[in-house]
Design a protein that fits this description.
Blueprint lengths: L1 E3 L3 E6 L5 E6 L2 E2 L4 E2 H10 L5 E6 L4 E6 L2 E5 L5 H10 L7
Organism: Candidatus Scalindua japonica
Protein name: Type III restriction protein res subunit
C-alpha cells in the first residue's frame, strides 16, 4: 500500500555545518545530508521520486517527489511511486 505522508519534513542540525535529516513523527533518518546533497535531492525529486528513509523492521519506505512525501510497504520502484503520485493529483485524500 502507498499513501501520502502528511507528517514528513526535513530538519536542520549542526552548529558549524548545516545537515539535513528526514523526520516523520518520532522517526529520524540515519542519513545526514550536507547542504549541497540536500539541494541536489530537491532538484532530483522535481522529476523523479527519491527514496529518503527505510524502516526495515516494519518494511516501510518513505519517498519524496515533487515536494510531496509518500510512504509505502510493498517495495515499490521509482516508477510505481511516480505513477501513484501523478495519478492522484487533484484528488482529495482522506
Amino acid at each position: 500500500m502507498i499513501r501520502k505522508e502528511k507528517k514528513g519534513n526535513f530538519i536542520q542540525s549542526g552548529t558549524f555545518s548545516t545537515k539535513y535529516q528526514f523526520s516523520v513523527g518520532k522517526k529520524i533518518s540515519q542519513t545526514k545530508l550536507s547542504k549541497s546533497k540536500y539541494n541536489s535531492l530537491l532538484q532530483i525529486q522535481r522529476l523523479d521520486p527519491v527514496k529518503i528513509m527505510t524502516d526495515q523492521q516494519k518494511n516501510r519506505s518513505w519517498w519524496i517527489f515533487q515536494d510531496g512525501f509518500y510512504i509505502e510497504n510493498e517495495g515499490m520502484t521509482e516508477s510505481n511511486v511516480k505513477a501513484f503520485a501523478l495519478g492522484n493529483r487533484g484528488k482529495k485524500t482522506k
